[in-house]
């Protein structure tokens, strides 16, 4: 009773601290903790909660020091351990959680809760060997609890995944033996345990025994959720080539679910394997008279089964599965080159026409028919087009426009148009024909809006694809003529359409792409936010804006976007481990490896590494107006330049969704696979260049700290081997130059499909321009100053490093950019490359300024030493060493280049340059209704606002760099 009373008192005293932490009042939590500690100095949990409050207030040094002291005392109280775990989770020090519980388990080896927490700590770290050891400790402690035993088995299986060679010879046989022991002792209790046994057998490809398990008494443990038992049985039978059994299983499943397309594919695969086996038997036994009939019997049986399913739907609900199965049947016969003389089958053209008649009023019809267009010859394709044209009932012979009567007819016509484009018919149109068809589709779009008057704001208008097709035709004309009139016209139509269909992400996606093509990013954040990009979409769809936001000078928005993207990946690293732990707790062993693979894909995501690198480079540009703030920003980054290895490009995963945007072009024009591979290589090269540049800057800052006698903060303190920042800086500078050499093939920007192609990077600008040369020239200055800091001013050779920096900086000043507009074939058009070139120069000037700050730091120390000597030796009238004057002159020269860039950026501002954006009005477009003229004015307002914002933010950055340079004067 006394012990329990003591615990109750502690809980009562700690409650106010917990309440303050839950409410986010960390300052009050510290005060409450101090009150408790005055009354009870040895209450460790109160100290931990105080440390947690300190960490949340950003006082990491104090909080970490207090935690370290408590950690060394090896606490065992449950409350203290839980509180310390929270602290380590928030600081992402997961290894210390394992260390904490490991020490506690040694003091209390029979404490089940501590051992369970220790196991989960190892799960979080992915330490499978320690998982196995801890699980066996738990099993010995509680031998009647099956889950602990199977935690150990699953830990062994994960080691098999980790090392495939040892997995086959050691880990998997051991795991199988352990489960067999429980089976023989009749200790199996749950379905999850049988699932784990099947996983082990399947990994060993022991299909015979897996089949025996499913069909034996152990199979009774398995539930039958969504026919999982039957499909698993069919999969195992297919591995054993029991195709008659497989076909029988899927035939039964199709009787219950005749619209399941996956079942149809598996069923047909099984039957065609039986057919091929029959042909093999016929060749091996040519005397047999039954081989040929048996071969055709399989095909006839399958054809009859499909026809029966179609017949059964004649007076009921029409389902696509059986009709598609009939077309797939013809396709497989064609692919496998089978003779079907005894089978009365329809041609592919007839089947596709019939399918269009039945399901043309469903939007999915396009994707269904597209799969089978390669079955038709050119003449048959024309016949199919003519059939669909007449079947829609909206194409007149005299050219008059017939509008759809209802949504079904409208959808059917859209499917016809989409398939026509996929067949390449639109690419054969002349410019005038394409423009005329585009105008017709716009009229059909506006007429079709009447069917969507009752739709909710979250619904998409039925006729929106008419608009998208019209815009694609305008973009075709733009690609051929290079006349921006057609692109801006497309943007105006899209801006109009988004008013009637506010939730259509396809319109927003295309608007983002087209605005960025013309160097306008201002409208994109609202469009991007309107798509509600959340969670995993930050990885798959973040590329939509990530390559353009900095390129077009929207630095503030870039910081917000990159922070959001990186936050998702950081949160995922925390949450993924929670999912893994839940899988162990609830026995979902089949999901554990999937979660691990998913976590690895996100950890190695191209988007993650790109966003985090760009975010840190942006911080060095935006958050620095003097060298002290640069050092603070560098020290706060979770990067260790002294110990980090070069990024391994071979491990990167391309998780981008490049097929989200609708495009009905022929596959040979989309070049989806080729463009994806080319883009991935470009993205990897760009990432390596930026990663190396980041490390060059951070190492340069470290060299400055070393010259000032300050210990290196941003490094791995546990690494016993002391590395020289200057030596590594030289190496990274060589890596940077090598990277540029390897990217010579990217001197011209890659151009991809305008609708569905990936976005290009800024690699071409950095490789072909003077940017890298300018940065490396300052590294020579840093080396020179460092050598002086070691040898002194007495040995000060006359070098030309300052002149090289001056010359390379002057090359960053853009001579070709005269303003926002350029002449193109006698027309004034927006210069879409002006901003990109200017931003690249501004970035390079920022990097040069940071590294000149390193030189200034070293030279100021040398000048102070010289002044001390000069004051002591008053009789001597030595003049100031020339190096100081040369450096000051260099700062003035760089400052002058910065002012020139500022002037260029100001000239891009339409207001500053007195440019009337409305003068760019599309005179080629005839005046139509008032609403279109308003939309056009809205577009130009957005363009003007965007360029103004870009110009303003660029000028702001240059202003900060101007101030930065002024602080570097000696």
TrEMBL record:
<dbReference type="InterPro" id="IPR011990">
    <property type="entry name" value="TPR-like_helical_dom_sf"/>
</dbReference>
<dbReference type="InterPro" id="IPR019183">
    <property type="entry name" value="NAA25_NatB_aux_su"/>
</dbReference>
<dbReference type="GO" id="GO:0031416">
    <property type="term" value="C:NatB complex"/>
</dbReference>
<protein>
    <submittedName>
        <fullName>N-alpha-acetyltransferase 25, NatB auxiliary subunit-like</fullName>
    </submittedName>
</protein>
<dbReference type="Pfam" id="PF09797">
    <property type="entry name" value="NatB_MDM20"/>
</dbReference>
<comment type="similarity">
    <text>Belongs to the MDM20/NAA25 family.</text>
</comment>
């Amino acid at each position: 009773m006394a012990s329990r009373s003591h615990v109750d008192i502690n809980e009562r005293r700690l409650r106010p601290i917990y309440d303050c932490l839950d409410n986010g009042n960390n300052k009050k939590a510290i005060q409450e903790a101090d009150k408790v500690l005055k009354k009870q100095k040895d209450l460790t949990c109160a100290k931990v909660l105080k440390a947690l409050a300190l960490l949340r207030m950003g006082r990491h040094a104090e909080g970490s020091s207090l935690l370290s002291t408590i950690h060394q005392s090896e606490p065992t109280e449950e409350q203290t351990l839980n509180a310390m775990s929270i602290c380590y989770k928030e600081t992402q020090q997961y290894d210390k959680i394992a260390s904490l519980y490991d020490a506690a388990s040694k003091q209390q080896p029979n404490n089940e809760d501590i051992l369970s927490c220790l196991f989960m700590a190892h799960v979080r770290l992915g330490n499978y060997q320690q998982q196995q050891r801890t699980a066996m400790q738990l099993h010995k402690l509680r031998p009647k609890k099956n889950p602990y035993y199977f935690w150990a088995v699953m830990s062994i299986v994960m080691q098999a995944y980790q090392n495939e060679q040892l997995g086959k010879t050691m880990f998997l046989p051991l795991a199988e033996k352990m489960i067999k022991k429980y089976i023989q002792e009749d200790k199996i209790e749950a379905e999850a345990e049988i699932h784990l046994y099947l996983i082990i057998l399947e990994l060993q490809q022991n299909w015979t025994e897996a089949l025996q398990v499913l069909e034996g008494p152990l199979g009774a443990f398995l539930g039958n959720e969504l026919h999982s038992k039957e499909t698993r049985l069919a999969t195992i039978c297919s591995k054993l080539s029991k195709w008659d059994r497989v076909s029988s299983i899927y035939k039964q499943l199709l009787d219950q679910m005749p619209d399941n397309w996956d079942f149809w594919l598996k069923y047909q695969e099984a039957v065609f394997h039986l057919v091929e086996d029959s042909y093999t038997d016929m060749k091996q036994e040519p005397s047999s008279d039954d081989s040929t009939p048996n071969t055709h019997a399989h095909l006839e049986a399958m054809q009859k089964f499909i026809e029966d399913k179609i017949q059964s739907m004649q007076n009921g609900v029409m389902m696509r599965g059986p009709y598609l199965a009939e077309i797939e049947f013809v396709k497989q016969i064609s692919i496998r080159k089978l003779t079907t003389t005894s089978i009365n089958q329809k041609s592919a053209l007839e089947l596709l026409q019939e399918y269009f008649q039945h399901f043309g009023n469903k939007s999915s019809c396009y994707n269904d028919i597209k799969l089978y267009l390669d079955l038709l010859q050119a003449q048959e394709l024309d016949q199919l087009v003519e059939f669909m044209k007449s079947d829609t009932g909206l194409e007149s012979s005299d050219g008059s426009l017939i509008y759809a009567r209802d949504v079904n007819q409208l959808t059917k016509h859209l499917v016809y148009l989409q398939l026509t484009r996929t067949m390449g018919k639109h690419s054969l149109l002349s410019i005038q024909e394409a423009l005329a068809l585009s105008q017709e589709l716009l009229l059909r779009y506006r007429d079709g809006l009447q069917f969507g008057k009752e739709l909710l704001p979250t619904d998409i208008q039925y006729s929106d694809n008419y608009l998208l097709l019209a815009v694609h035709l305008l973009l075709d004309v733009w690609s051929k003529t290079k006349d921006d009139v057609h692109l801006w016209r497309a943007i105006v139509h899209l801006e109009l359409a988004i008013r009637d269909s506010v939730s259509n992400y396809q319109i927003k996606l295309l608007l983002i792409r087209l605005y960025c093509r013309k160097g306008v990013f201002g409208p994109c954040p609202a469009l991007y936010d309107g798509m509600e990009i959340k969670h995993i979409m930050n990885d798959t769809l973040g590329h939509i804006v990530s390559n353009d936001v900095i390129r077009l000078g929207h630095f503030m928005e870039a910081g917000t976007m990159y922070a959001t993207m990186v936050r998702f990946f950081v949160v995922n690293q925390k949450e993924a481990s929670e999912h893994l732990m839940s899988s162990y707790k609830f026995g979902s062993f089949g999901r554990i490896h999937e979660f691990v693979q998913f976590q690895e894909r996100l950890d190695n995501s191209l988007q993650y590494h790109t966003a985090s690198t760009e975010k840190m480079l942006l911080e060095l540009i935006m958050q620095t107006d003097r060298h002290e703030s640069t050092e603070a920003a560098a020290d706060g980054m979770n990067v260790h330049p002294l110990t980090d290895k070069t990024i391994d490009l071979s491990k990167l995963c391309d998780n981008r969704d490049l097929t989200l945007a609708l495009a009905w072009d022929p596959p040979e024009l989309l070049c989806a696979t080729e463009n994806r591979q080319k883009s991935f290589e470009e993205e990897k090269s760009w990432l390596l260049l930026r990663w190396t540049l980041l490390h060059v800057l951070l190492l340069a800052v470290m060299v400055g700290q070393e010259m000032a006698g300050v210990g290196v903060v941003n490094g791995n303190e546990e690494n016993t081997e002391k590395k020289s920042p200057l030596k590594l800086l030289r190496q990274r500078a060589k890596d940077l130059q090598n990277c540029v050499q390897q990217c010579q093939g990217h001197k011209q920007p890659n151009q991809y499909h305008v609708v569905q192609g990936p976005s290009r990077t800024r690699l071409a600008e950095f490789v072909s321009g003077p940017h890298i040369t300018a940065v490396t020239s300052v590294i020579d200055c840093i080396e020179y100053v460092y050598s002086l800091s070691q040898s002194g001013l007495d040995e000060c050779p006359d070098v030309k490093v300052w002149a090289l920096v001056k010359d390379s900086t002057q090359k960053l000043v853009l001579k070709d950019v005269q303003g926002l507009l350029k002449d193109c074939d006698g027309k004034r058009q927006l210069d879409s490359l002006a901003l990109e070139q200017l931003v690249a120069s501004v970035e390079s000037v920022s990097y040069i300024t940071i590294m000149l700050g390193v030189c200034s730091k070293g030279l100021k120390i040398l000048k102070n030493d010289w002044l001390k000597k000069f004051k002591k030796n008053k009789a001597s009238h030595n003049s100031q060493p020339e190096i100081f004057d040369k450096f000051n002159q260099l700062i003035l020269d760089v400052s002058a280049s910065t002012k020139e860039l500022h002037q260029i950026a100001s000239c891009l501002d339409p207001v500053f340059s007195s440019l009337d954006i409305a003068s760019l009005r599309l005179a080629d477009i005839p005046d139509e209704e008032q609403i279109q003229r308003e939309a056009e004015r809205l577009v130009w307002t957005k363009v003007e606002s965007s360029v103004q914002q870009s110009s303003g933010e660029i000028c702001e950055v240059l202003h900060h760099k101007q101030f930065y340079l002024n602080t570097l004067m000696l």
